[in-house]
Structures are given as structure tokens and as C-alpha cells.
UniProtKB/TrEMBL annotation:
Residues 30-253 form the Solute-binding protein family 3/N-terminal domain. Keywords: Signal, Transport. It comes from Deefgea tanakiae. The lineage of its organism: Bacteria, Pseudomonadati, Pseudomonadota, Betaproteobacteria, Neisseriales. Gene3D superfamilies: Periplasmic binding protein-like II. Residues 1-19 form the signal peptide. This is Transporter substrate-binding domain-containing protein. It comes from the Bacteria. Belongs to the bacterial solute-binding protein 3 family.
Amino acid sequence: MLRTLLTATLLLASAMTFANSLDTIQRNGTITIGVRDSSPPFSILDPQTRVLKGYDIEFAQGIAKRLNVKPVFKTLESNDRLPWLKQHKVDIVVAVLSRTPERDKEIDFSVGYFVTDTRILAKKGRFNSEKDLAGAYLSAATASTGAKLLRQNFPKTKLAEFDDVPEMIKALNAEIVDGVVDDAPVLALALNKMPAAQRSRYALSDFSLALEIYAVGIPLGEKALQAAINNALVDMEKSGEALAIFNRWFGPQSSAPISRIFTISPSRN
């Protein structure tokens, strides 16, 4: 009986600790945010100023501002995102994290704050339809949804995983891989960064492999924190700040111009 009561008490204490994490963040005055430092235009460490910047970084700052706390950034790799949340090494993750049914079982997510699709960057004419993927050697970021997509839906495709896009572009230019699989704006930026002569040889596939919804990663069960972040994101949309951030990084004058095909909504979008 005593053992049962002790177990119940520990479980209750654990639940209370998780439930009060928003209170802890606001009491401490800081929120620790896991971000990438090599995923332009979403997040990049400026080599001159050593300051993080990008679409994700500005959204992370907007969330912290609305929670009335200071953001503390911790840079991580793609395969660190879920483990760090589950181990409470960070409070939230804002790091090109796509929401998937599998990840929904491990962590909670905010409403989506960016929607795009997955494409292939390759030599012009190499990939005209999904049939051309059979037997191709493609690269994707480690632990990314692109890598998982290729494994699950295109078993006849050979896969090489890299830490970041610059490494994949090097492999593409060296003809080690036939194409790079990632989200359209990431590939568009990588293409625009190539020298003109080199850029003329490549193009993004006309067809997409999947739709991607980026959301803030939150430890499982942190409903108060989830609600606060959702409110912050919706407020950024209503105030026009979300659109301004999008235009800064993806508008007509940006280095990766794309159309905004979404709005941030209170419902799960």
C-alpha cells in the first residue's frame, strides 16, 4: 500500500512539474530554444557578427517577446531536436521541424508557422516525374522528413544523409549524388547562391514529393506552454509581424522568393 501511494505521489509530482513548465519559464524570465545554425534562410550563424538570424530565429524571438521572457538559443543538429525536448535540454525547438504523425507520438507541436513542399534540386531534366527516382542516388539531411520520405515511399532510391545543405550541394556538384531532397525554399536559396554558370545547369523539380508544415516542438504534455505559444503565433499573424518576417526572407526581394500559401490559424493547420 505504501509503495503504491509513493508511486502515485511521484507520478503526481512529475505531472505537476511538467504542467507548471510555463510558470517556471516565466518565473526564470528566460526560455531556452533549440535552433539550427546552418539552415538558411530559416537559421544561420552570421560569420562576421556571430549572431543567429533567419526566419526561424525571428519567430523564436517573437514568441519569447509575447511570453515576456528572454530567448536563450542553443544550437543543435537535426537528430538532436526530439531527444533534447524529451530530455528537457531545451524548453522548445524552432528548427525547421516538420509535424508528422510519428513525431506527434513523441512530442507536442504548435500550430504551423510555415508551409511548403519537398522537392529535388538536380541537373535540369534529370527528374521529370517520381518514376525517375528509381535507382537514383539522392541526398537528404540527417533525421529529416525528406530522408524518411525517401526510405518509406521510394525504396528503390539510394540515400546519402548529410548534416547540412552546403555539404549536399558539394556532393551534387562533385556528381557523388544525383540530387538533393529538401524543402523548396531551402533549395531555392542554395540554387541562387551558386555562381551563374553553375546555376544554369540545375533546377528544382516541377513536381513535389510531400507537403511540409513547420511547427514549434514542445515537450509532450506541456499544454499550458503549447497554448501560450499558439497564442503568440496567432498574434504575430494578426499584427502583421508574421507576414513581414516572411517577406523579409521569402518575398520578391529576398534570396529565396516564394509565394506565401498559408496563414497562421488558431486551428491545427
